[in-house]
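pls ignore typos typing on phone
uracil + seq
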Amino acid sequence: MSTLPDDLRLLHRLIANCTLCPLHKSRTMAVPGHGDPEARVMFVGEAPGFHEDRQGLPFVGAAGHLLDELLQSIGLDRSEVFITNVIKCRPPGNRDPLPAEIEACAPYLDKQVELINPEIIVTLGRFSMARFLGPSASITRIHGQPRLADERIVLPLLHPAAALRQERFRAQLQEGFLVLKRLLSGELPPELRKEPPPGPPPQQLSLF
Ligand code: URA
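k done
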């Protein structure tokens, strides 16, 4: 992994010391994010869990092991991507993040997206999907279907923890990673292709 550039290191230091919401009182460590600051792909999960809170690193528990496996299945290593979460501190008992916590953390995630500037954001789970595609997006309807949001490709995927709970979700998640592989190799579905720039009209061939 490349070392973090100054602006991202400063941002992560701010996150590590953040007191903007009450979660700072119960956390062991904030979990800003980890990976290649120049990654083409940024994974955004929900919130740190028990192990992440202890280590200060994202996706290092069981869901993280599955994420590593899925990455490897398409020839990627976590050092080649950037991984973070919608909220940077563990909610007690791993409860769902509250709207106020998501809002308090929003500027941190926005700044990470701005600084890392990934080609593709992969959302893991409904909280991350809602953050990028709006609250009415439905994961069962759009899982694995990339779309453009703010001129960036967003690929909504199930959360790996869901696949740990239900085997049938594992195959879906695997398919979603194959979509990511195709996107990375430059294969874009027609709805994401940019129109060719307007040029001069084709010349008419005239024989007389
Ligand atoms: N689940 C998440 O959403 N993020 C983590 O970092 C770990 C588990």
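Confidence is low (pLDDT under 50) at residues 204-208. The CA atoms of residues 120 and 183 lie 8 Å apart. more later
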